[in-house]
Amino acid sequence: MIQGQPLVRGQAQGVALVSDEPISFWGGYDHHTGEITDRRHPLSGSISTGRILAVPFTRGSSTTTAVLLEAARAGTAPVAIITTGLDAFFALASIVATEMYGVTIPVVAVSPQHFDGLRTGDSIQITADGQIHVHRS
Amino acid sequence: MRLTGRDRAMLDGAHGAATQMAMSIVVQMAEVYGASELLEITAAHIDSTIYIGEAGLEFAERLAALGARVSVPSTLNVTGVDEHHWQEWPVPAGWARNAQRQMAAYASMGTIPTWTCAPYQTEHRPGLGQQVAWGESNAIAYANSVLGARTERYPDLLDICCAITGRVPAVGLHLTENRAGEVLVNLVGVSGRLQAHDSFYPVFGYLLGKTVQDRIPVVTGIEVQPTDDQLKALCAAAATSGTVALFHLAGITPEAPTLDAAFQGGQPTTQIEFTLDDLQAARQELTTATDDHLDMVVLGCPHLSLEEFRQLVPSIEGRQAHPDVRFLVTSNRGVVDQAKQAGYLDALAAFGGQITVDCCPLTTPMLPPDIKAVMTDSGKHAYYAPGLLNTRTTLGSRAECIQSAIDGRVVRDGSLWET
Prior knowledge:
The structure holds two protein chains of two kinds. By secondary structure, chain A is of the alpha/beta class. Chain A contains three helices and ten strands. Chain B is an alpha/beta fold. Helices cover 39% and strands 13% of the residues of chain B. Chain B has a five-stranded parallel β-sheet with strand order 12-11-10-13-14, with helices on both faces. A four-stranded parallel β-sheet of chain B has the order 8-7-6-9. A three-stranded parallel β-sheet of chain B has the order 3-2-4, with helices on both faces. The A-B interface holds A 7-8, 22, 24, 26-28, 31, 37-40, 57-67, 69-70, 72-74, 86, 88-89, 91-93, 95-96, 99-101 and B 21, 24-25, 28-29, 32-34, 47-48, 50, 52-56, 58-59, 62, 135-137, 140, 152-159, 209, 213-214, 239-243, 362, 383-384, 386-388.
C-alpha cells in the first residue's frame, strides 16, 4: 500500500497504464477515443479510458487541462491519475469536471520511489485519503 | 489558507455568480498548490480561448452567461478559427461556429482581443517583476525568462478565473526564492555563426526543454545577443519539449546579469554540457519526414512579428512558390493589419502565399487531407505536428523553407550544423 498525497480526492479502481515519461494532452490525447496520440511518448497508441494513468507530470501546453475536461465530458478520461508531484493541470480539469459534470477524477501524487514501483497492468485501488493499493498478478 | 475579506466576499457571491464560480476554482486550486494565501495580479493572458470541444465552450458560455468580467487587463490567446478566412480551407462549419461562439464568450468579458500566442510582442507585454496570470506555454516562458515578469504555468480554465478575481495562489514563480536557477547548462563548441542563425534557437530550445524538463536552467556560452524573435523561438520550443516556464541566459536575461544572481547565490544541482553533436541529434529528432516530398510550408509558430513580415519581403519578392506547394504564414490580426499598411503583404500574395489570422494549423482543423509532408522553421510546430496533424514534418531554417516552397521539394543545407 502506498500513501499518496491526494490533490483531488476520490475513489477509483482500475488497471494501471504507467510511464516514467511526462505527457502533454494537447496533441497527445484524443478525447473522442481516449487514445494517447503523442507519437513520441512510450504510451502512444494506448487507450487510457477507464484506466488509472500514471505519469510523473504534464509537460508543454497549458491546454492539457482543457483536453482532460473534454475527456471527462465524453467519458473517455482515465478513472484516476497518479503523478510524482503537484501537477496543477490534471487537478484543475478534475475540479472543473466535478463542478460542471459531476465527474471526479481522483489525482494522487506519490514519491518518485513509489512511482518507480508501479507497472502497467497492475490492478490499483485508490481511496479518498490518497491510499493506493496495488495488486500485481 | 488565509483569505482576505475581499477574497471571502467574492467566494460568498457578493461580487456576483460568475466571480463566485471563478473564486471557488481559484481557492480549490490554491489548496492543490498548498498555498497559504493568495496574491494579487495586475494582468492576465487567457489561453482558454482555444476551442477544442464542447466542454470548454460550455465552460466559457456558462461564465459569460453569469456576467463574468475580468478585473485586470487580459489579453486573449489564439482561437480555434480564422473568422474571416476559414472558408478558404476545409474547416468544418460546425467547428467554425463553435470556435466563434467561444471567442465571443471570452470577448464579452471585457478582455483585450489580441488573439495571439505572442502577446509579449504587443503593447501589453508585462514588465520586470510584474505579477501576472499567463496561459500559453511559450508565452509563460517568455514572460518569466525574457521580461522577468512573474507567472506560474496557468492552465486553461484557471487563467480566466484568475483574471476575473484578480487573485492567484501565492506559490511557485510568483515568489522570488522559487526563481533561482537549478541546473547549469553550458553551450560548448557551438560557433557564433550558428548561434546567430535563425535555425539555432528552435533546436536549442527543443534540446533544452527535453533535457531539463521542469527544472530552471541557467545557460552559459551564448555568444551572440539573440533577437526578440529568436527568443520567441527558444521559448516556444523549450516550453513544448519540456515543462520550462523559466530559464536564465547568463548575461542576457534580466534576472541573470551574473551567474551568481541567476542562482541567487546558490549552487547548481547539476551541470550539463550541450555540444554540437547534441544539437545535431536534436535537430534530427525534429524531422520525421523521410524523403524530400513537400506539400506545404508553415511559418509563424509562434505568430510572426511585424519585423518578420518585413524580413520576409526581400526573400520572396519577385519569386514564386511552386504550384504544388502551399505556403502559409500565421499571425494575429493586429500584426497583419500593420503589415498590410506597411506594404509587406503584396510580395507574399505575388509569391502565392496565404495568411491565416488569429490561429494556426495546430489550433484549427484547416489542413486539407492531401497535405501530408510539411516543412516549418518552428521547433514547436515540428514537435506537435506528427501527433496533432498526422503529417511528416521537416524542420528547416526560414530561408530553406522558402527555397523548398519555390523548388517544390525539401531542400536543406546542413553545412552550418557540421563540425
